[in-house]
Amino acid sequence: MQTWEEMKELQPLAGQMLVNSFTKDRISHAYLFHGNRGTGKREMSLLFAKSIFCKFRDGVDPCQKCRDCIRVDSGNHPDLHWIEPDGQSIKKEQILHLQKEFTYTGMESNRKVYIIVDADRMTVNASNRLLKFLEEPSKQTTAMLLTESGQTILNTIRSRCQLLSFQPLSAKRLENKLVEEGVSQSNARLLSALTNNLQEALDMNQDEWFANVRKIVIQLIEVLQNKPNEGLLFINHQWMPHFKERKQLQRGLDVLVLWFQDVINKFLDREDSIVFITEREKLERATMKWSRQSAAQCLSRILEAKRKINQNVHPNLVMEQLTLQLQR
């Protein structure tokens, strides 16, 4: 994220609150960023740190080119300190080391910033040590605590932080952001229908295994439409070898759900809601195989198959039964 306007498109409320901190010269000594993974917490903490250190700001926006901005990006700014879990947790010794660092004068300014990633993973001793640190705030010190689970942070720590809630990204906003990141429109539409997590969507887009999921789902649909007698053969020789783990199988069924939702959207003329935008002709042909009512029944059967997978029913049996149901 280069500007606060871009950040406010991603997280309008949290972004505006931090902009107001600058414009009103009321930067808090501690913030708690809480929200799901991929909602922009780390990106906003970086932008906020740049705005604090940049000497060439345009309003509240950092220049992104000066020595301070570049070093914040690289993680090498001497007055910005990152704390992340050491193994499974953030330990007391890490907080003690941070406190020691903050007894020194800033290397290049009077400001000091520290960012604690996965703050909910602090040990009890680390949390208590941080609490003592927060109880004696310096006007020149700014803390940002990042967490997916704000409720697990000690209430005494929460009460000393300004709370910023990061909301799940809307499907359309995520789709647009993915396109900006270089993801194709068709993949962006599919990914934004499967997750509201930006980083997860980007990771899936780079995953060779996931790249074949769309293709295999479409192949299954074509088999069911044109060669229904070969459905079970396809499941055992093409589908199951690709979806070897239960988690993978759930993902394949998620994409299959989206296909039948698209069939229903075709009947309802909801073209803007179509996910498989590059397969419109196939969707048109699908409406000749499945009526709106039968497509809705197929959705129910797929969701039931997902429940059975979660209940540890044998995956092959689940998929074979589902295939026979979808053929009718």
UniProtKB/TrEMBL annotation:
> What are the recorded GO MF terms, alphabetically?
3'-5' exonuclease activity; DNA-directed DNA polymerase activity
User: Which InterPro entries does the annotation name?
Assistant: DNA_pol_HolB, DNA_Rep/Repair_Clamp_Loader, P-loop_NTPase
Q: Does the keyword Transferase apply?
A: yes
Keyword Nucleotide-binding listed: no
Top-rank taxon of the source lineage equals Bacteria
**Its EC number(s):** 2.7.7.7
Q: Which Pfam families match?
A: DNA_pol3_delta2 (PF13177)
Task: Set out the biological process GO terms recorded for this chain's protein.
Answer: DNA-templated DNA replication
Q: What UniProt keywords apply to this chain's record, in alphabetical order? A: Nucleotidyltransferase, Transferase
PANTHER family to which the protein is assigned, alphabetical: DNA POLYMERASE III SUBUNIT DELTA, REPLICATION FACTOR C / DNA POLYMERASE III GAMMA-TAU SUBUNIT
Name of protein: DNA polymerase III subunit delta
User: Which organism's genome codes for this protein?
Assistant: Halobacillus yeomjeoni
Lineage of the species this protein comes from: Bacteria, Bacillati, Bacillota, Bacilli, Bacillales
